[in-house]
Design a protein that fits this description.
55% helix; 273 residues; Cyclin A, domain 1; mainly alpha; globular
């Protein structure tokens, strides 16, 4: 989130932008985080060394060097690695619970045959072959929670998690990471055709109202819920999955309004026109 550095996938840290300064040679020095920001604090803790001849100019008065910023971002990304195991366990429990209750979603595009893999192994497969940052798994759950606000029937089952969760994490990677794989690669990871994944991505975006932006504070707050820093992790996910009435009221309170037409609806209307 926030500023991205081409040599790092650790996009979970953001800094404070400012006007670009020029160094002594007249070249532009890239903007960097303000002193006291998460990146600056992490760099101070990490103590990144300044090599002779390397870029050691402060990115802003009193700021850190580019090497220190990259090191801080990588350190921050490493702290998110535990989320993969946590999300795999939560997803496994959520799918099993919804299956036992006989639940299903009205989003027909995401429904299909029962997945040939377990939810936990599917998360591990995405982590191994998806090439995305670990924080994308938490962001994917945030997107699914937003989708539920607009579509109260949304729930993860053995017949739809293969599509819903994959698209959510893929969009998180596209929004957060400096580099990410093509839809063709993601389709192979998810065991579906590229054409199907393209349609699912558009359907998800339309249903979500193209609302992908989020702040570091929102991310940290959600991760705290998942890890149990504020309340038990499993009840937090259970509450998000079952509080349909509460989600509808939240949607109204947040000014999200009525749900947007889906990609399928728009495509049908365009064809009819």
């Amino acid at each position: 989130m926030g500023q991205k550095v081409a040599t790092s996938k650790s996009t979970c840290v953001h800094g404070t932008s400012m006007e670009v300064d020029s160094d002594a040679s007249g070249s532009l020095a890239p903007p960097g985080p303000a002193q006291g920001s998460p990146v600056a604090a992490a760099a101070d803790a990490g103590g990144a060394a300044r090599r002779p001849g390397a870029h050691t100019l402060a990115t802003e008065p009193g700021g850190i060097t580019m090497q220190e910023q990259i090191a801080a971002m990588k350190a921050d990304a490493a702290q998110q690695e535990h989320l993969v195991k946590l999300v795999s366990e939560l997803l496994e429990e959520t799918v099993a619970r919804n299956d036992s209750m006989g639940r299903s979603t009205t989003l027909a595009a995401f429904e299909g045959e029962k997945a040939p893999v377990t939810a936990a192994s599917y998360v591990r497969r995405i982590a191994k072959y998806g090439g995305c940052s670990a924080c994308c798994f938490a962001v994917g759950l945030i997107y699914l929670k937003r989708l539920k606000r607009r579509e109260p029937s949304v729930c993860l089952t053995s017949c739809n998690f293969q599509r819903l969760f994959l698209v959510a994490v893929m969009l998180g990677a596209k929004f957060l990471d400096d580099s990410y794989y093509s839809n063709k690669h993601w389709a192979e990871v998810g065991g579906m055709s590229t054409a199907e994944l393209n349609c699912l991505e558009l359907e998800f975006l339309f249903r979500l109202g193209f609302s992908l932006s989020l702040t570091r504070e929102e991310y940290d707050s959600y991760v705290a819920l998942l890890t149990g820093d504020e309340q038990p992790a499993v009840p937090a996910l259970v509450q998000a999955a079952n509080a349909d009435a509460m989600e509808v009221e939240d949607r109204k309170a947040e000014g999200l309004g009525e749900k947007s037409p889906s990609f399928t609806d728009v495509a049908a209307a365009a064809a009819a026109f």
